[in-house]
Amino acid sequence: MKALSIRQPWLWAILDIPESDCPKRVENRKGTAFHYRGPVLLHASLGGTRLEYTVGIGGIMQARIDHQHTASPSMDGNMPVYQALPRGCYLGIARIVDVVMHPPAFVRGALTSGYCIAGQLGLKLADVRKLPRVDAPGSLGLYNVEHTPGQVGRRPMWVNFGEHRDAYAAAWAELSAKGGAT
Prior knowledge:
Layout: E1 2-6, H1 10-16, E2 26-29, E3 38-44, H2 50-66, E4 89-101, E5 112-113, E6 116-117, E7 121-135, E8 142-146, E9 157-158, H3 165-178
Parallel strand pairs: 1-3, 8-9
Antiparallel strand pairs: 1-8, 2-7, 3-4, 4-7, 5-6
């Protein structure tokens, strides 16, 4: 299984903003190449400062404006509280269906447009779904995860999904059957 760690509140925007309210369906990464397409587990990074949270919430609100979403009842008052955001755990799954290089600047030289960051790779996500929380460490970049014990200290990383093992395995199998591209 492949996995990707994402800082909060960005993972919250991917998993918890309803379809009708401009959810985040692109994950930005620095780099020039990213070849993987297919299912990916979504992990909430352990790190994240209060300043990163504040900037993230501002970015989410700006993305809604960029996508011409006005205030809606389902978003009003539903922004997550910094302390309440889960960290250091797996929370969902999605498929990476495409990767695009964002232009160095958007209209009028803007560095962001919606959820896209100028000059970065955009991993386009589909079939996003939330799964039960499983506490476990993550890693940088795209990394491998197994749900059966392996040798300690070897890659891929072993994660004990416990009572949620079947839910994660079933979601992985379903998204794997859909393939990488839409």
